[in-house]
Automatic annotation (TrEMBL):
It is a multi-pass membrane protein. SUPFAM superfamilies: CorA soluble domain-like, Magnesium transport protein CorA, transmembrane region. GO terms for molecular function: cobalt ion binding; cobalt ion transmembrane transporter activity; magnesium ion binding; magnesium ion transmembrane transporter activity. Keywords: Cell membrane, Membrane, Transmembrane, Transmembrane helix, Transport. Its main location: membrane. It is found in: Cell membrane. This is Magnesium transporter. It comes from the Bacteria. The keyword Acyltransferase does not apply.
Amino acid sequence: MAHTRVYRNGVLEAEGFPVAAVSDHLADPAATVWLDFCAPTEADLAAISEELGLHPLAVEDAVHEHQRAKLDRYDSHAFLTAYSAKLDDATGTLVVSELAAFITGQALVTVRKDENFAIDAVAARWDSAGELAKNGVGFLLHGLLDYVVDGHFEVVQALDEQIEHLEDLVFDERPRYTDMQRRSFALRKSLVQVRRVVLPMREVVNAIMRRDLHVVDGEMQPYFQDVYDHVLRASEWTESLRDLVTTIRETQLNIQGNRLNTIMKKVTSWAAIIAIPTAVTGFYGQNVPYPGFQSTAGFWTSTLVILLLSVGLYLSFKKRDWL
């Protein structure tokens, strides 16, 4: 079941009509048509492909998944691939959804690879900016890209908050190293995925804004420039967060190493203190006569020696901050 809309002279005239009626609407130069398919096959796109003169390679890319974010230009149309993104706050993992779009002079055809891409949210953006509908396909394309890029920006912002929380865990008095390592690995993996979908959008939006593509007119130019600025901010933010996660991981390892050194220093110091009573009692445990042998004086002498040497060694270690 495809979503369909037709705008005529900047006014939403009809929606939900059969795909077979698209050719009737396109016969009017004042009409702009939107079609949306979810997980179609090449056979599903065959009729509209012939109607709009879509290139077979573009149709093949629209059906198959895992295309890179790009903008390809053909004689009769342009082909766009982009990804929406959403962050799972509980696990720190990223959920991405692929979208393909055919851009012609009078029509925008979107092809979603799954239901995770919220096309209804895109339609809501079009409805909220109806005064721009007179700009045709440029208006539809702007709403689509604006939704995708804003989603990227929200993901990057959420990752920033997750990383700030991770920073607090690093300097916790009782850090849980296993949880921190798992969380930092998940965030780093999500940042790599975000980088793959965000960075190519700079070239995509920049290419769409070129005048020789004839998609963005003068009135829509500032709106696409705003989308491009958001793309740049999201890209720069992603790069800085990637460096920050690496720094946090290195800091975590340094703190863990320092704490281990402190623990080893304390254990070694206490072992040295415990060695004093062992040495003294070992001496007085000899089976040969010595001063105080088999007398109460010998017991008190050994006890005093143990106390004096242990306290002296403890104070010496404490002064050196070993304990």
